[in-house]
Design brief:
Blueprint lengths: L13 H17 L11 H7 L3 H5 L3 H4 L20 E5 L5 H10 L4 E6 L2 H14 L4 E5 L12 E7 L8 H11 E10 L9 H5 L7
Helix pairs in contact: 1-6
């Protein structure tokens, strides 16, 4: 257990929060059917709006560790044939697989995640699906292992709410996008002001 594990969120550095998030999603990758304070899995993806026919057409391993916040990428017209798409927080690879199909063999999807076990899961899933136009990298969204002007579009499905350094992510998005490039980011929003206890809680950081 890390020495900072009992800290309040407000006492943690951005790097410590980043490691906290990585460890939590590593747990999800290893044990997707365990109980978490946030929803995980195929039924959750279906409730968000992922078509049942789509989910049933994929191996269960592709969706059972899903932790996104929106089904928007299923209808994403921004991803066009032949383009290079960067996905921040690719998780177990559900959206990655959809994007890989959308851009086709002439295109490319680059998946980034900071939780190593999630990347391992995505790598196995995408290989099973025959997605050969995907490259996966273990890296934080705040420091992307890509050159300037490298991608046509950047997408994400619920990563900004987990980051204490959102400005750094947007700076990196701006850096790696080609001139005229686009970004599409699905996020959760708060409808009520959190209590002080919720602000302090590490577990509530994920909800």
């Amino acid at each position: 257990m890390a020495w900072w594990s009992k800290k309040k969120i407000g006492e943690m550095t951005a790097a410590e929060i980043r490691q906290l998030v990585a460890e939590k999603y590593a747990d999800v990758a290893r044990a997707p059917r365990a109980r978490y304070k946030f929803r995980v899995g195929t039924d959750y993806a279906r409730d968000l709006g992922y078509p049942t026919s789509l989910l049933e057409g994929l191996p269960l391993a592709v969706s059972e560790a899903f932790t996104g916040v929106s089904a928007s990428l299923t209808a994403l017209s921004e991803a066009k044939f032949g383009e290079t798409i960067l996905e921040l927080g690719c998780g177990g690879g559900l959206d990655t697989a959809l994007l890989a199909t959308r851009v086709g063999p002439e295109g490319k999807v680059i998946g980034i995640d900071y939780a190593g076990p999630m990347l391992d899961r995505a790598r196995v899933n995408l290989e099973q699906l025959g997605c050969h136009n995907v490259a996966l990298f273990h890296a934080p969204a705040q420091r992307l292992p890509l050159p300037d002007n490298a991608v046509d579009c950047v997408v994400s499905n619920g990563i900004f709410n987990l980051s204490a350094d959102k400005d750094a992510i947007f700076q990196e998005i701006r850096r790696v996008l080609k001139p005229g490039g686009r970004t599409v980011n699905a996020e959760i929003v708060l409808r009520t002001e959190p209590t002080q206890a919720e602000r302090d809680s590490q577990e509530d950081w994920f909800t």
